[in-house]
TrEMBL record:
Occurrences of domain Protein kinase (ranges): 50-324
Species the sequence originates in: Botryobasidium botryosum (strain FD-172 SS1)
Domain of life of the source: Eukaryota
Pfam families on file: PK_Tyr_Ser-Thr (PF07714)
GO molecular function, one term: ATP binding
Annotated InterPro entries: Kinase-like_dom_sf, Prot_kinase_dom, Ser-Thr/Tyr_kinase_cat_dom, Ser/Thr_Kinases-Pseudokinases, Tyr_kinase_AS
Name of the featured protein: Protein kinase domain-containing protein
């Protein structure tokens, strides 16, 4: 299918811009059916446009704008902030797309392609109607976090078992998990990700600031304030630590250590450095969402200060799936 679509794109680009409408319509129909699109070459202005000048979201490195793909499909257009130096922006976009473009899984945000408009390079993905998991859970208090956590674990297991190079996400937080129009969770934002072969990353050209980035509320103690690049390198185990924090965030609807408001607070830095556990939440609404002994045990295993003692993504997926199945069976028998 992609080969056929690639040929259609070549035919379209050979036509005068005023005569490309039929090809655009056909490509749009094919994309609707298969949810895939040829990654080469970069998207042309006849295929993609910014539909709103207002930024829809903002992150530490990039902003997100809404766009229209093939005249019909809403997409997100992610681009570095204007004040990021051109060389840095280009390097980061290349690094992120180098990982992201390889991935295809129901719980990983799809990469459609990239587009350059003037001096700005955009990374294009489907628009996620419900935004990120943090906003979604806060505005929908009755949503059950366990099915979402199972989906995130499925996505993380896919990344950690990816072949021929496994993928370390590197920045797993509630803000980097998006919710589709169907209410499903998709892992997003691969700006801190790396491909790893036999325990060694495939790239060694990342800057010192790249190793220091990331929110300390989700950062494992072994990579906090590293003295060398190697000490700051993210791993599967640091992803697992962050997943445990995401579990806590989904159940409580709050960031880890929410009582410390400022991310730059020295108390928070001390906690992160030591790898201290957050206090177990006992509020009735949190317990009602499913934070029981089993869930808390899994979280604390994810936060073990010894990276080698943390469970694998496969193990987490198995335990969460079993918990969800057991609960569904109990609900069914009672019904």
């Amino acid at each position: 299918m992609e080969e056929w679509m690639s040929e259609l794109r070549k035919q379209m680009m050979s036509l005068h811009p005023t005569k490309r409408g039929r090809h655009i319509k056909l490509l749009s129909e094919l994309y609707s059916c298969c949810q895939t699109y040829p990654l080469e070459p970069a998207l042309d202005t006849c295929e993609i446009e910014v539909s709103s000048k207002m930024r829809a979201a903002r992150g530490g490195f990039a902003g997100l704008w809404r766009g229209l793909f093939l005249g019909k499909h809403e997409v997100g257009m992610k681009a570095p902030h204007f004040y990021v130096p051109d060389e840095t922006a280009q390097r980061r976009v290349q690094r992120e797309t180098g990982v992201w473009r390889r991935l295809k899984h129901p719980h990983v945000l799809p990469f459609i392609g990239w587009h350059t408009l003037g001096l700005v390079s955009y990374m294009i993905s489907p628009w996620m109607k419900h935004g990120d998991a943090v906003d979604y859970l806060q505005t929908n208090p009755t949503v059950d976090p366990l099915p979402l956590l199972v989906q995130v674990a499925e996505g993380l297991s896919y990344l950690h078992n990816f072949q021929p190079e496994l993928v370390v996400h590197g920045d797993l937080t509630g803000r980097n998990i998006l919710i589709s129009h169907t209410g499903d969770a998709l892992i997003a934002d691969f700006g801190q990700s790396e491909l790893v072969v036999e325990g060694e990353p495939t790239s060694s050209s990342n800057s010192a600031s790249w190793y220091l980035s990331g929110n300390i509320r989700w950062k494992a103690p072994e990579i906090f304030e590293p003295e060398t690049k190697q000490q700051g390198r993210r791993t599967k185990e640091t992803d697992i630590f962050a997943f445990g924090r995401v579990m806590l965030q989904f159940f409580t609807r709050q960031v880890p250590f929410a009582h410390i408001l400022n991310d730059r607070d020295d108390k928070l830095k001390t906690i992160a450095r030591r790898g201290d556990f957050p206090e177990r939440p006992c509020a009735a609404d949190v317990v009602a969402r499913g934070l029981d002994d089993g869930m808390w045990q899994l979280m604390t295993e994810c936060w073990d200060v010894n990276p080698g003692h943390r469970p694998s993504a496969d193990n987490i997926l198995l335990r969460l799936s079993s918990a969800l199945e057991a609960r569904n069976n109990a609900d069914h028998s009672q019904g």
